[in-house]
Design a protein that fits this description.
Elements (H helix, E strand, L loop, with lengths): L20 E2 L8 H14 L7 H14 L3 E5 L2 H11 L5 E5 L4 H9 L3 E5 L10 H7 L4 E7 L8 H10 L3 E5 L7 E2 L2 E2 L6 E5 L12 E5 L2 H11 L3 E3 L2 E2 L10 H12 L1 H19 L5 E3 L13 E5 L1 H4 L3 H10 L2 E2 L21 H9 E4 L7 H18 L2 H4 L1
Parallel strand pairs: 1-15, 3-4, 3-5, 5-6, 6-9
Antiparallel strand pairs: 2-10, 7-8, 9-10, 11-12, 13-14, 14-16
Helix pairs in contact: 1-8, 2-8, 3-4, 3-7, 9-13
Organism: Winogradskya consettensis
Keywords: Aminotransferase, Pyridoxal phosphate, Transferase
Family: Belongs to the DegT/DnrJ/EryC1 family.
């Protein structure tokens, strides 16, 4: 077990870790199984365009999500674009601002207008009442996000969308294998999109998937994913190339084989962080509702500067000097990013975006590491409130 420094590296102590512990380090599953799958694909001479590995991956993702259909894609951003385009959304799309830029970009790239919505001040989930106030004659859809793997208010949003005849999608990039109200995330709204990027707990190097129970949407998205080709050379729709290749599917399947182990590991880390950070003034670890199934892949802490004695960016710097590479996910909110900034103010989003950071977890981080990292934060908090460092 690593030591918790009595003196922080930022003040001349030795770093707690000799090699980095970083957010987003990929979980690597069984290498032999991965190479066997890759070899089989090479032997088959079938490397993309709906190969057997991609089809198996789709079936297994649909089984986890509890949906009838799964359309695997080269990444989640393309999956979001397919979902919106295949369902004929026009005009404005209501999206939370507290998310990765990809959510807004998927909308804007299609020539649609993202309209940014505020979030719950504690959980960061899209606020249905604020969303309601943003609905106007040009609104075509709501694209909510299960940010950090914590479920958005699925039922309220389904009611809201139904009341206004809007399409409803969920960016479920963070929420594969989670549940909401006991229901697997995947079956909400018209469709949901997962990410299997390398930084996700289940990864296919790069990859994504649109899951839905709507056969028409699934079929249109499937065709649009492959240049709009219906069969042979018959092109029926404007399409793009958003297919998942066989190497990616091989990695995705291998990752799925280890999914339960990855979740159990992340859960242990979560509990180590929770125990280590308990009772620290101004430091709040965003909790998981353990009545639900969670993937525990984003460890999010909010730093309240007034009570902690330091701000989020100072904590990130302190951690970095200990070789702990956190990330300011997600800061700033999309509504304050250059392509979208138009003076809109979203108070809850802005406060959370200024306070949150992600701490390292995943297979490369042990529960003992998590305890050490929590210990560093504890030391930082103590030093921040002692007169020598408080100035
Ligand atoms: N919606 C939401 C809510 C999302 O969060 C995302 C993606 C999407 C949609 C779109 O999904 P995809 O189209 O990507 O499938 C990373 C990921 O690239 C991105 O997928 C993810 N969200 C986002 C939250 O994180 P960056 O710009 O922070 O990546 P980068 O290169 O700075 O790496 C992040 C950390 O991971 C670093 O500490 C380094 C580490 N890392 C990264 C890679 C790729 C590794 O250790 N090994 C690696 O192979 O976006």
């Amino acid at each position: 077990m690593k030591h918790v420094p009595a003196e922080l590296a930022a003040f001349g102590g030795a770093p707690a870790f000799s090699t980095p512990r970083s957010v987003g380090r990929p979980n690597i599953g069984d290498r032999a199984a991965l190479f066997a799958r890759l070899n089989a694909a090479l032997d088959r001479g079938w490397l993309s365009n709906g190969g057997p590995l991609a089809e198996e991956f789709e079936q297994r993702v649909a089984a986890v999500a509890g949906t009838r259909f799964c359309v695997a894609t080269c990444n989640a951003t393309a999956g979001l674009q397919l979902a919106l385009r295949a369902s004929g959304v026009t005009g404005e799309v209501i999206v939370p601002s507290l998310t990765f830029a990809a959510t807004a970009h998927a909308v804007a790239w299609l020539g649609l207008t993202p309209v940014f919505c505020d979030v719950d001040p504690v959980t960061g989930a899209l606020d249905p009442e604020h969303a309601r106030s943003l609905i106007g004659p040009r609104t075509g859809a709501i694209l909510a996000v299960h940010v950090w793997g914590r479920p958005a208010p699925v039922r309220e949003l389904e009611e809201l969308a139904a009341d206004h005849r809007l399409r409803l999608f969920f960016d479920a990039a963070h929420a594969f294998a989670c549940t909401s109200g006991g229901r697997p995330i995947g079956g909400g709204g018209d469709g949901e999109v997962f990410s299997f990027h390398s930084t996700k707990f289940v990864n296919s190097f790069e990859g994504g998937a649109l899951v839905t129970d709507d056969p028409e949407l699934a079929e249109r998205a499937r065709r649009m994913r492959n240049f709009g080709i219906a069969e042979a050379e018959r092109v029926e729709l404007v399409g793009l190339n958003a297919k998942l290749n066989e190497a990616a599917a091989a990695m995705g399947l291998t990752s799925l084989d280890s999914m339960d182990r990855f979740i159990a590991h992340n859960r242990e880390n979560y509990h180590a962080y929770r125990a280590g950070l308990a009772g620290l003034p101004g430091i709040t670890l965003l909790e998981f509702d353990e009545r639900e199934r969670n993937n525990y892949q984003y460890m999010i802490v909010a730093v309240d500067e007034r009570r902690a004695g330091f701000d989020r960016d100072t904590l990130l710097a302190i951690l970095a000097s200990e070789n702990v590479l956190g990330r300011a996910y997600f800061s700033p909110g999309c509504h304050q990013m250059l392509p979208y900034a138009d003076g809109t103010r979203l108070p809850h989003t802005e406060r959370l975006a200024s306070q949150v950071l992600a701490l390292p977890t995943g297979i490369a981080v042990s529960a003992a590491d998590a305890a050490t990292i929590a210990g560093i934060i504890r030391v930082a908090a103590r030093q921040a409130t002692t007169p020598a460092h408080a100035a």
